Amino acid sequence: MTKKYSRFTTTHKVRPDDIDMFNHVHNSIYLDYVLAARYEQMELYYGMSMEKFMEMGYGWVVQSVQINYKRPLGLGHLFAVETGIESINNKGCRVTFIITNLKNNKLSTDGWFDFIMIDLKNGRGVAVNQEMIDLYSI
């Protein structure tokens, strides 16, 4: 049986510096939106801020990412970033995401990130321990 993990949603608004020369959000900014949402969600929902995680000597780094662009976001659009852990393995986790334009409730982008847990002292990957699995298994 595959374990189910909780999903969380964070709402943001497109800012002027997010816009590219084609008058919509630059493709790289969507990745920033997901990372900002995860940063906020770690503290609000998992009870483990990134700062606390780092104090423990750990960090999360991106190993790979897949993003599918469906519809652009524009200046001033409110949008929701829904994220959740899809799976946890011995070295990290896969986090999936959906970004929805709240103006029309349509999908803007979706995809996933593969994160590796590292030891901040040496920058090398470390095994995800049971404490971390329990923490993120909500």
Per CATH, the class reads Alpha Beta
Strand content: 35-45%
Q: In CATH terms, what is the architecture?
A: Roll
Shape: elongated
Helical content class: 10-25%
Structural class: alpha+beta
- Continuous helix count: 3
Organism: Pedobacter cryophilus
Keywords: Hydrolase
Protein name: Acyl-CoA thioesterase
Pfam families: 4HBT_2
List keywords for this structure.
39% strand, 138 residues, elongated, single chain, 3 helices, alpha+beta, 22% helix
Structure notes:
The chain has 3 helices and 5 strands. The two termini are 16 Å apart. With 138 residues, the chain is of the alpha+beta class. 22% of the residues lie in helices and 39% in strands. It has one domain: Thiol Ester Dehydrase, Chain A, CATH 3.10.129.10. Pfam families: 4HBT_2. Belongs to the 4-hydroxybenzoyl-CoA thioesterase family.
What is the gist of this entry?
By secondary structure, the chain is of the alpha+beta class. It has one domain (7-136): Roll (Thiol Ester Dehydrase, Chain A), CATH 3.10.129.
Topology:
Elements: E1 7-13, H1 27-44, H2 50-55, E2 58-69, E3 78-88, E4 92-101, E5 106-119, H3 130-136
